[in-house]
TrEMBL record:
Transmembrane segments: none annotated. This is inositol-phosphate phosphatase. GO terms for biological process: inositol metabolic process; phosphatidylinositol phosphate biosynthetic process; signal transduction. It comes from the Bacteria.
Length: 270
């Protein structure tokens, strides 16, 4: 099934309106005390704002689009066994650690997928009031400005890559010596602490790729649609397609360097 243009436009406009509204609520409360809990470990944080923001979207979606599904981080979504139908993949605050420590560098991320295909992507840099937005086949935008197709003939020597230090030190997912070799090869590295923003920056062309070894669907759903719309590519770190119902390793980059990264630098363990 293909989503009709006008249906997609209406859905996009509604999602965009809700994202901006949720963002304003967060901005208005940014200096209020936070209730901070931990999840899987002491550094895995969640606040009442993560939960309330997700609830805000879940209530809106269930009232307006009762036939749609929700896949989201904080537990107010649905238990999905399949990617069929229209699925809102939501991260209410991506970069919670930044939200707590820095009060900036976090985003609301929403990807709207139909039968596993990303149709709409929204990544909202809340504190800077910058909305990255895309509809499949219609380009990606940073606020009003249309993003350009990614550079052709990019060389690895001129690339800036987003790499989290965790994956460049000994770990059980990826060969760190190869990652260190990669770091010496490229022009520079960056790490922003919000996967959604990091994918938006790939789409904007201000970084040339993003390599990471464990992200949930809600971290990547919005950003993937953005990257697709400027001619970039997002796969697992072995080049295989991403499964939107589970965690994935991620390589998102300019196509010009994808092959080299996959064959020469990313060596997965096990
Ligand atoms: P979060 O802030 O929504 O939890 C930080 O490098 C990035 O990784 C953020 O996008 C963060 O999302 C995400 N992240 C943090 N812990 C994670 C985990 N255990 N599994 C997958 N993604 C995680
Ligand atoms: Ca989290
Ligand atoms: Ca996240
Ligand atoms: Ca989150």
């Amino acid at each position: 099934l293909v989503m009709e243009q006008q249906v997609k436009k209406d859905l996009f406009d509604t999602a965009r309106k809700w994202v901006l509204e949720a963002g304003k609520t967060i901005r208005d409360a940014i200096d209020q005390p936070l209730t901070i809990d931990t999840k899987s470990n002491a550094n895995d944080l969640v606040t009442h704002m993560d939960r309330e923001t997700e609830q805000f979207f879940a209530e809106k979606i269930r009232a307006e689009y009762p036939e749609h599904f929700i896949l989201s981080e904080e537990g107010y979504g649905d238990e999905l066994k399949s990617d069929k139908g229209i699925v809102w993949i939501i991260d209410p605050i991506d970069g919670t650690m930044n939200f707590v420590h820095q009060k900036r560098n976090f985003a609301i991320s929403i990807g709207i997928f139909q039968d596993g295909i990303g149709e709409i992507g929204l990544v909202y840099d809340v504190m800077n009031d910058i909305l990255y937005a895309a509809r499949r086949g219609e380009g990606a935008f940073k606020n009003e400005k249309k993003l350009l197709p990614l550079k052709k003939e990019l060389r690895l020597e001129e690339a800036i890559l987003v790499l989290n230090n965790y994956w460049t030190t000994p770990n059980n997912k990826v060969e760190d010596s190869k990652m260190q070799e990669l770091i010496r090869k490229i022009r520079g590295t960056r790490s922003y602490g919000s996967a959604a923003l990091e994918l938006a920056y790939v789409a904007e062309g201000i970084v040339d790729g993003y390599i990471t070894m464990k992200l949930a669907p809600w971290d990547i759903a919005g950003g993937m649609v953005l990257v697709n719309e400027v001619g970039g590519i997002t796969t697992k770190a072995d080049g295989e397609p991403i499964n939107m119902l589970e965690n994935n390793t991620i390589l998102s980059c300019n196509k010009e360097i994808q092959e080299t990264l996959l064959t020469d630098y990313i060596e997965l363990k096990q």
